Amino acid sequence: MQRWGLNTYLYGPKDDLKHRLLWREVYSADEEAQLKALVCEAESRGLSFVYALSPGQDIVFSSSSDLTLLKRKLRQVAELGCQAFAILFDDIDHSMCQADTEAFSSFAHAQVSVANEIFRFLGEPPVFLFCPTEYCGSLCSPSVSKSPYLLTVGEDLLPGISVIWTGSKVISRELSADSLVEVQSVLQRPPLVWDNLHANDYDSRRVFLGPFKGRPPGLQANLRGLLLNPNCEFEANYIPLHTLGSWHKAGKEEREGERSEEGRQIRPTEHRSSAHSSKHKPSESSDNQYGAHSRPSCTAGPLPACSSQHRKPTAAGREGGAGPLRSEERANGGHSREKVQGKALCAGKGPLNEVQVRLLVGLYYLPHEHGPPAQSLLQDLTWLKANCNFVSANGNGKKTQPQKVEEWRARAGRFLAACDEIAALHGSVVNSVNRAVLYDLYPYVWDLRNTMLVAKAFISWLGERKRDSELFSHPPPLFPTSRLYNIRPFQHKDKVRCLGASLALCPEYSFVLEDELGVCGCAVGILDVRSFAKRCQATWLPAMRDKYPTRPHGANGHAATKVRVSEQDYPDSLLYHFPSQLRLEALPELVDCSISRSLLTSLLTALKANGSQGVFCEVHPTDRLRLEFLTKLGFLEILRGEARSTEGLILGRLL
């Protein structure tokens, strides 16, 4: 922050229970020492440290006891050297208790009364922030200009207190001068923007690596300050923080240019002096800031800002830096599996290059906007899906248009190449020298890689079949690993044993798990057991008997599936609620249960998407590991006693 010209850090992480949930409790001696060290470090860097407290969830505004406890808590922090404070009433219920209803005419009056008293108690510090419950345009009733709540805040809140505002939305795509002028008129002071552009605590699958944008530097003239609420992951905030500093610098230069122009008409020497000292004047309202470890910081005047709203500070250093990298040698498991020749599972560590960084940032850009790589991928995917009828087996004659077919194939080739490039980014991040980046971004890179592999399989499938496919997402393994797994539909080239009838009659519900060494697992489903049994009896079993007339069924490596072929084997009461059946197989060395879970989830999703309302499977009573695994996924024993015509346990799950 110091290096890039930012000036304020606001501390307010929800992980500090004494910030919000236990706000009445004072800090222990050890906690005091840590907080004081942070305050002193900020001050030594020329940054204003703002301590934020969120008592709104359960404070009784009319209670002298609660007010005393609030003062005690803030006095303790002030004695640690903190000179800037914020009191936050965001994201709370508007209702008041009986005592507060009798003491105050409105919710706004109650909050303003407490804020004003605390402000005076602290000696009217130059930086004191107030976050209203209606903190953006979409939360104002009936509108910003007519909100009784905001009008009360603007009228009764002491003028030395700055009011936090997030824009038209909680996460605003853009900020305009006109909207800020309207807010300023209602609040009777320039707002201090708490910018959630890069906040990602509301969606665990998204991170925002793009630049600070959509806020013209000229807006700084309409602001008391700007605080950027960052990503939860510390390492994800380099570009947001850096570009925020550039934005702040551009705004300062713009204002200094305007002053210089005025100075030429009056006294040039006088302007130079004021320009050098302007950043020390709390009354000047043109700062922005960003918060890296806690909640957004704020700036009243040119204050520094940085903090991560309501989140735990995340540091770049973590334990176990090299922990996630481990290579495994797999046993055979029934078919030959050799090490990948000439390919190291964990290559030498090196930094990501600029092309890779641009690719990663473009794919995880901003909440309202995709970067160029993501836009290109989505456009190609949409076009390929919409025009797949030209290469479909049943394209209604359109497949005879060679130009369209050639165009589809060429565009698909480019799309598949882009998928490969993005999937390869996973390995680059895993083997990157920056382990902090790996640990912070690994879940996102894993999700990205899986999405690209599925997209690649989907487009390849569209080139051969006539209907859409269900897209699946798979969570990362328990630990970061360079061992890559892929889940894909069964292909006839796959050497999977003991699944003959299923693969012959319903291959669309057969999924394969593979790694660099080959197939290491499979999940097979039957959408409708009744229909499947009839087809087995009518076509598949006679064909097998004709093909192997002198050998027991399933001999010579052609074992039949162990799925029952008579609908009478399962009672109607079972098949009515659980019409589908599944089977899951994995090699013994596949010890990461999260991989098997993803494989099974793919099958369950496909069955549900095609109309199944429930699925069952058979498990041997002594197979405790499989029973425990399926139970954690929501399977329960559904047939007991006489209703069960098999030694295996029947487990089922509704979809």
UniProtKB/TrEMBL annotation:
Its EC number is 3.2.1.169. It comes from the Eukaryota. Keywords: Glycosidase, Hydrolase. It holds the Pfam family NAGidase. One of its GO terms (biological process) is glycoprotein metabolic process. Residues 250-340 are annotated as: Disordered. Residues 1-252 form the GH84 domain. GO terms for molecular function: [protein]-3-O-(N-acetyl-D-glucosaminyl)-L-serine/L-threonine O-N-acetyl-alpha-D-glucosaminase activity; beta-N-acetylglucosaminidase activity. Signal peptide: none annotated. It catalyses: 3-O-(N-acetyl-beta-D-glucosaminyl)-L-seryl-[protein] + H2O = N-acetyl-D-glucosamine + L-seryl-[protein]; 3-O-(N-acetyl-beta-D-glucosaminyl)-L-threonyl-[protein] + H2O = L-threonyl-[protein] + N-acetyl-D-glucosamine. PANTHER family: O-GLCNACASE, PROTEIN O-GLCNACASE-LIKE. This is protein O-GlcNAcase.
